[in-house]
Amino acid sequence: MLFWAQMSFAPHQDNKSVELPTGYELDAAGTNLLLKRPSGFPIAAFGEGVRKDSIRHVTEADERYLRAIQRQEEFGSAADSETVLMFAADVREARTEFLLTLEAVYRGEDVRPANYVSLVS
């Protein structure tokens, strides 16, 4: 499944300023940027003008999703039924977070990291 988003660049952003988690790649494909997982699997395409912090937030959400899958595969099969359900719920939550982050980027909304806490109430 590949997602595509296009938004407007803030004037001060340049094309090389995205800090991605280890292994993730952002490749140019024409005027688009293709985000790839460490395995090389493309997960999203961003149109020119995408906000770089939005790409980073999508990547971080995908990384949390992949870690949840890894934990489920590593520990879930040898665990009791309650633990298996816990790992499955963790994977669902991480996938939902990834998809909601991607949807927010697609809509051009501000995306905040999952651990963001507002200091102003």
Characterise this structure:
The structure is a single chain. By secondary structure, the protein is an alpha+beta fold. It has one domain (3-107). It contains two helices and four strands; from the N terminus they run ββββαα. A four-stranded mixed beta sheet has the order 1-4-3-2, with helices on one face.
Topology:
Blueprint: E1 3-5, E2 25-29, E3 32-36, E4 42-46, H1 52-75, H2 81-107
Parallel strand pairs: 1-4
Antiparallel strand pairs: 2-3, 3-4
Number of strands: 4
The helix/strand class is alpha+beta
Overall average pLDDT: 80
Give the SSE order as H and E letters.
EEEEHH
Give me the number of helical elements: 2
**SS strand fraction:** 5-15%
Summarize the main sheet.
4 strands, mixed
Largest sheet: spatial strand order: 1-4-3-2
Q: What number of structural domains do the residues give? A: 1
> Which overall shape is indicated by the principal axes computed on the Cα atoms?
elongated
| Radius of gyration, whole Å | 16 Å
List low-confidence stretches.
1-15
Distance between the termini: 38 Å
Helical content (DSSP H or I, runs of 4+): 40-55%
